[in-house]
Amino acid sequence: MALIFQPRWQSRVDAVPWRWYLVGFPVTAARMVLTWRKLCQNTDLAVSRRPGHLLIGGEMLVRGSALRPEPPRLGPIRATRTGLTARIRLHPGQTPMHVLAVADSLMHAWRVHSVRVISPQRGHVVVIATAHDPLGEHPGAMPVHRPRLLSARLGRTGDGAAWHVDFRSVPHWLVVGATRSGKSNWLATLITELAPQDVALVGIDCKGGMELGLFSPRLSALAVSRTEASRLLVALLSEAETRMGQCRDAGARSIWDLPDDDRPVPVVVLVDEVAELYLTDGTREGKQEAADCSTALLRLGQLGAALGLHLVVSAQRFGSELGPGVTALRAQLGGRVCHRVHDEASAEMALGDLSPDAVAVVQSITEEEQGVAVTTMGGRWLRARSVITTPDDARESASQHAHRTPRLALTGPGLTKGSDA
Ligand SMILES: Nc1ncnc2c1ncn2[C@@H]1O[C@H](COP(=O)(O)OP(=O)(O)OP(=O)(O)O)[C@@H](O)[C@H]1O
């Protein structure tokens, strides 16, 4: 394999979107200035002013400027890496909602991919335009970065920023998507990002371990059937109780308040296709196992955040039809990622309780947009796309970081230990 060394300055220069700065931006800015008056007239953003002087005599005489609708003042237009920003001074009586209402017209007139409107100061709005859909391109490899513990960079968001998942701020996640929508790739990217960190990874993959088995060397435990999953979840609950006792003895409210040397390793529990845990074969044992799994997952969701036990649950559908406890578990999974889904109900289950607007956006994701998802971030929703992690990348990362796999006292009889799977 030939290694090509590239100086750091050169990679920085290559990363600058020169074409946009030199050609795209000047053309778009000129288009904005030239079409501004007409655009405002057509969208009712322009308002008519009274003429300057009005004099009425015996024989009527009217003086003053003709009634000409005045557009709001378009301030400086600045280029950004992904598009541009422009400041607009509103007329008296106008609010940011007036500009927001015509965002679609701005998008078409300026020929940009999307337009957002924010109001950093009363009487002004800033329009943020994105030139091209950053999620439409192949996401490519992510630049090397030093992740914060329990944080992972998964790809890019629709406004061109890095897509981060941080378990310290959002402890549990639900990942929904139809088949071939990109859920497994998302999980694989997450695991690849967490693998170099001092974190224990535990897998539950009741489809025989076909997805998470790739990461066996880096998993502290892997359950590949519902019976194993039920035992593993019980073992995790007893780990939660041990941690609770440890925190209680030290007078700490969470493991993060414990001294560094005493702090137990954070655990991320990854559940691939959670429906497999809930579906029963009708037997008494099957029903009992499903109920045990449901209760244990719910308790982990309720207790885990402070104890460094985190859940990532992936599902094609995640609704009350799976069984009792699902809606309560969903309420614990504050982080949401919803890929393309088959029906509105699935989008509603994933995002409806957090953001009704996002449900419509999920339904616009096409089959070609594999890996594109709508996610919640800092109280708002965003479109985002994960980078591609191939099975080879997954295997390589797992074996490269296998030595970091913490030993947890979780493996009971019948449980598949990660490195033996
Ligand atoms: N971020 C992405 N960008 C481009 N292609 C992607 C992305 N994520 C996934 N894909 C492609 O989409 C296909 C399906 O992805 P994946 O296996 O992750 O879907 P899935 O939702 O897990 O499907 P299933 O439920 O059937 O396992 C793969 O061929 C993968 O290469």
Automatic annotation (TrEMBL):
ATP binds at residues 177-184. Keywords: ATP-binding, Nucleotide-binding. The keyword 4Fe-4S does not apply. Residues 158-348 form the FtsK domain. Pfam families: FtsK_SpoIIIE (PF01580). The keyword Mitochondrion does not apply. Residues 391-421 are annotated as: Disordered. SUPFAM superfamilies: P-loop containing nucleoside triphosphate hydrolases. It comes from the Bacteria. This is FtsK/SpoIIIE domain-containing protein.
